[in-house]
Amino acid sequence: MKLFTDQVLEPLTHLEGLTTFLKGTDEPVEVPDIGSYNTMSPQAREELNARRIAHLGSDLIIRTPQVRSVILKVVHLILLNGPRSSGRCGLMISGESGTGKTTAAKAAMRYVYARYRRDHPDLDRLGRVPVVYVEVPPGSTGKALAIQFARFLGLPVLPRDTLEYLLHLVSAGLIEAGTKLVVVDELHNLKRTNPGNSESVDVLKSLSNRIPATFVYVGINIHAGPYLADDRGRQVAGRFSLEQLANYGIANEAERNLWDLIVGLFEERLGLISHEPGDLAHSAKYLHERTKGSIGSLAHLLFGAAQVLIFTGSAPENERITREALDGISLDLATEFGGSL
Ligand SMILES: Nc1ncnc2c1ncn2[C@@H]1O[C@H](COP(=O)(O)OP(=O)(O)OP(=O)(O)O)[C@@H](O)[C@H]1O
Ligand SMILES: [Mg+2]
Questions:
Q1: pTM score, two decimals?
Q2: Whole domain around residue 299: which residue ranges?
Q3: Chain centroid, CA 341 distance in Å
Q4: Residue nearest atom 13 of ligand 1, based on CA coordinates
Q5: Is the CB of 112 under 6 A from ligand 1?
Q6: Separation of 93 CA from ligand 1 center, angstroms?
Q7: pLDDT tens digits for range 74-112
Q8: What is the pLDDT of residues 37-62, one digit of tens each?
Q9: How far, rounded to the nearest angstrom, does the alpha carbon of residue 116 sit from its chain's CA centroid?
Q10: What CATH number corresponds to the domain at position 150?
Q11: Where does a domain end: 245, 276, 298?
């Protein structure tokens, strides 16, 4: 089994990279039962196992209630904004680091792109770019932010270009591309009070006024930070609804039920031959202790455990994540490599 792949993915902040992601799917790999697996040739098994490992390490998005809520809110806003020429509303996805904000935005982008492609199958030929994704650079100035949009579209920019020119260039480009959804991630990078700060907010406001698209702002606790504290911020807040993400708790029954649901949703996507959803039901508390309720840590732990089980060539009847398996993951690898890790 190969450990390395030569595949290098373009970043989402470039049109090609985002398009590859948006056109991709996270359809599960079909997993055979034990009997069929045992009759497969070694080569076919290896191929299947490589696909399963790659799938677990790809952009696999679990449709948690939070992810569904973000998709639904984005769709509602797109409907609400329609062809309106001003006063468009947007969505803010806020919360601590690692709570799944970017992932939820990616799920919404994929959904919107798929719907757009259904309505406009020839979007590539028409040069349409229905979805745009940019990240705010640290300590961003207005110009640096405008340049991110230009780079995304592959528009040429020169150091001497003025902010006004860049805004014109970018908004003309986005209007021509028929952009419907703009996701601006890492918005907390605007947070620090520096001279470029309010200018960057103005760039966003100016773009959202010029481009008939729905805007989604994503960042660490952006709903609470100084970003919304001044007049301009309040103006933005008034038009944005909020999706706040947090680590999951298990303090009461409702929280425990939600956590159980999340664990179950992950179990459905492990692609292991002998693992059934519900097998980890008794380990939900243990999983919470290990991950502190972080979806990022849960994904890491469960997908990582599943990858290790497949990579180390476990017998199909042992391809099942148990509490013991989670405890012993590093042990298994160490054993396989004869203690040379
Ligand atoms: N719904 C999900 N399905 C699968 N994996 C998820 C999901 N949500 C989050 N993850 C995983 O958790 C990790 C953190 O998620 P993500 O990057 O979306 O968090 P974030 O809130 O954007 O963090 P940051 O504020 O640091 O940018 C990622 O590795 C991601 O793959
Ligand atoms: Mg993020």
A1: 0.91
A2: 52-58+250-336
A3: 32
A4: 296
A5: no
A6: 12
A7: 999 999 998 777 788 999 999 999 999 999 999 999 999
A8: 999 999 999 999 999 999 998 889 99
A9: 19
A10: 3.40.50.300
A11: 245
